[in-house]
Amino acid sequence: MRNRWKDDEAAAIGSDDIAMRVYTSNLLGEEEDLVLHGGGNTSVKGSLTTVFGESEEVLFVKGSGWDLRTIKEAGFPPVRLNYLLKLGRLNSLSDSEMIRQLRLALLDPQAPTPSVEAILHALVPYKFVDHSHADAVVTISNTPNGAEHLKQIYGDEVLILPYIMPGFILAQQVAEATKSLDWSRLKGIVLLHHGLFTFSDDAKSSYDTMVELVTKAEEFIASNTDESSIVLSEYQWSPSDCLKLSKLRRAAGELVRGPVLLRLDNSREAVGFACRKNASNLATRGPLTPDHTIHAKAFAAIFQEDLTEDLKGFQARYIDYFNEYKIDEHQCLDTMPRYGVWQNKGLLYLAVNQKRLEIVRDITLHTIRAIQQGEALGGWQPLPKADLFEVEYWELEQAKLKSGSIRAEFEGKVAVVTGAASGIGKACVTALLAEGAVVIALDIDEQFAMDSLNSSLFAYRCDVTDTKAIQSALLQGVQRFGGIDILVSNAGNFPASQSIEKMEDENWNRSIELNMSSHMRVMRGCLPYLKEGFDPAVVIVASKNVPAPGPGAAAYSAAKAGLTQMARVAALELGADGVRINILHPNAVYDTAIWTEEVLAERAEHYGFSVEEYKTANILQSEVYSQDVAKAVVLFAGKSLAKTTGAQLPIDGGNERVI
Prior knowledge:
The chain is built from 24 helices and 18 strands. It is α/β, with parallel strands linked by helices. Strands 3-2-1-4-7-6-5 form a seven-stranded mixed β-sheet, sandwiched between helices.
């Protein structure tokens, strides 16, 4: 475990305890093997002066919704320390009542809700307390002789406690176990199947101890396993695999009553695990740590060839699991798996949005690594299903379920946008992402990024006049997101103005190829996935030149007219499959790559206008922007016009010839 402490960074912080707490919390959060997606928590004890001028002892503890990797000072709500200590002396306290009491103990009513471990942090008699869900420590505890191994590793320097639910009863357990204990001889506390606590009156010392203890666990694993413990293999997926994914995604969405995302992971580690003969048994025993059930459920789905039938098998097993452990007040969660093993092919991740998909992916990869290490240490033996159920159906999580949430209109949906690098295409990408969609963005621009820092955007360089290039792009996009629900067919160009008498074959053919034929190829490639999509919609970006062509624009106008006619036929053909096809006719959208300053000046001069007059030469006397077209795209792709297909809508500020 790398020690990330830097003396110069710490020196710049000085004696500010809260700033130091933020610093070392971020150091912990940067290590995925310590905490994942909000896991773990930290605190520091200090004091605040009240409005009455009185000094009060306070616990600054990680707040709900914050991640240690990015936490700031605002993420540590101040809680009355003495109030927490009194709560710790109660005989019993339900978790929902505990949360209410934690909020009552806040000195700032607008601060986030303190961690459920706040009482435990208060009980530890040191200024700084660090808690991680260290993979290595939890992996060892998930083996038949895990507790014995940990005692062998740490001796008497670490208190090792059996698993118990987080929250008030965990605080009680630690209080009882340390009642007559000399804290000064302890370096840490291991909670089996849960994680590790370290503490000190000095931030660096507590952090250093965390790194030291986790390193010892990692060294134990390394000395008792070898490279062959983690199986690696390869599988080359095919177009038929992607269509199966699309069908599975559709069936999975029915289990959550809405669109979902699905990813196929065919990395060497994912395929290697899927190739293990006992992979189906290992993946259904349980997760690395029980809090992962909240994100990834208590066990995986197992997929073979008929993925939709295998999904039904998971649903049946999950309902049996719920019925076995439920009590009267429990409300069954959705029955969609969050990850699955596709035997010999890789791992599948499922979630309602991209953020959760990334969480499931990260948790799953850490889990399969831990499973294989656990097997090498004597066998993977996570907590019994009853304990996993208790966390998955924790009353605090059930309360969140009952409160409900409103999804963004396109959350869980997958859109394809062509000509996405600039102008209308770029505006459409931005608008769709803002509404919750993930986007497969295609463009021929050489500077167009193969990947993006935004995980919801798959930016891929593609020549949409090339059928093979389109197929390759769509296969990779579907592997990444699971299907296609929306196609915004936008790629195009405005060829040089030429009269028919002087028309060059190359100019004509190039326009027909890009402005008409490429749209057919892209639509043809998307249709197998669109037919399996959620409320599938295609929006074709044509042109004002269709209803109102101009002289010198025969190549462009004919191509766009042909494109419009193709879209109308598609609307007739695909209605029975629920695929809507609608057409937009923009005009005079000047914030695009087509309209350079030189071209604008030339066209304005041709009509005897200034550039500004030329831009607003329409009925409404207003400039039309790319984002105006994008708004119309969102309207046609969404549910507001769910009963409309084959429509043509001008976006031109009003054009006399069109009207």
